[in-house]
Design a protein that fits this description.
- The longest helix is centred in the first third of the chain and has 24 residues.
- Helix 2 runs antiparallel to helix 9, helix 3 crosses helix 5 and helix 5 runs parallel beside helix 11.
- Helix content is about 45%, strand content about 10%.
- It folds into 2 domains: about 150 residues, Rossmann fold; about 100 residues, no CATH class.
- The protein is of the alpha/beta class.
- It contains 12 helices and 5 strands.
- The radius of gyration is 22 Å and the shape is globular.
Length: about 280
């Protein structure tokens, strides 16, 4: 055959053949994923991050990805991301495995406070009667001090998400529970590997999934800062929470940090400073 006479052409042919075989293997192996995959997040807990990873993963593996409201979920989805972890389990027509991703509620408040001051999401620009006709963004920006903005955020938008986190069923064995703080440090991808294995993906496709997870994570160095990515640091609340914020948090949310495993007690709110049990 004339087009295979040179060594370079032969090597190119082999490369294309191997790539084709790999692609077919990936397609075939996805058929072994017998269950649906559910990804539950909340506002400011890595929703955009997870969406990037699983949009790309599903595209490469020829799986159907859906992100939206439970009542709009197509029956033939493979991976469903819900940004308030609101799943209608009764409507699922097959077995499922899931990921439930949470974050320290104090950092949800800080992240939300900064985000809501400048983001372009439609919901932030709708006048609301309960805010005196102002939009959420106008209202939070009407406060002169950052301290007051944090208090406003704590009692409003973030309150909705923190209550959802508090009310989640943490005893559902079909979900793997993961903290945002652990996942952003998963440079070696051990946790991501655990997630993909728990979901039921075969060993054939896991390397591809891990590559996508790495490339779309902050620790890869591939992502630029944006309105969604302000800081990858953990425990940002330690920099911004003052005594009035700590007192209001305890008033609103009680022992939620103990329940979620972020604190062993409420000494973190002591006016004398951090406790020995506070996360480092």
């Amino acid at each position: 055959m004339n087009y295979l006479r040179t060594k370079r052409q032969i090597e190119r042919f082999i490369s294309i053949l191997l790539l084709s075989q790999k692609h077919e293997a990936l397609k075939a192996s996805t058929k072994k994923l017998k269950n649906k995959v559910l990804v539950g997040t909340y506002h400011k807990t890595g929703t955009v991050w997870m969406k990037k990873i699983f949009t790309k993963s599903c595209s490469n593996l020829k799986l159907k990805f859906f992100s939206g409201k439970s009542e709009e979920t197509p029956l033939d989805f493979n991976v469903f991301l819900q940004n308030h972890s609101k799943f209608n389990f009764e409507q699922l027509n097959s077995e499922y495995k899931g990921l439930h991703l949470i974050r320290d509620p104090r950092d949800i408040i800080i992240s939300g406070c900064f985000y809501h001051q400048k983001a372009h999401e439609k919901c932030l620009h709708i006048p609301k009667h309960e805010l005196g006709g102002l939009t959420y963004q106008e209202k939070i920006n009407s406060y002169n001090s950052l301290d007051d903005k944090i208090l406003f955020e704590m009692e409003n938008s973030s309150a909705y998400n923190i209550k959802l986190i508090d009310n989640w069923d943490y005893n559902n064995p079909a979900f793997i529970e993961v903290k945002y703080e652990d996942l952003i440090l998963d440079v070696d991808l051990f946790l991501f590997h655990k997630i993909f294995t728990f979901w039921g993906f075969s060993g054939e496709v896991i390397p591809e999934l891990l590559r996508i997870a790495y490339d779309n994570s902050i620790f890869s160095g591939n992502l630029r800062k944006s309105v969604h990515i302000r800081s990858a640091q953990q425990h940002q609340c330690k920099k911004y929470f003052k005594p009035q914020h700590k007192a209001k948090f305890l008033e609103l949310y009680g022992d939620i940090l103990i329940k979620l495993g972020y604190e062993k007690n409420n000494d973190w709110a002591d006016h004398r400073g951090e406790s020995e049990d506070s996360p480092r």
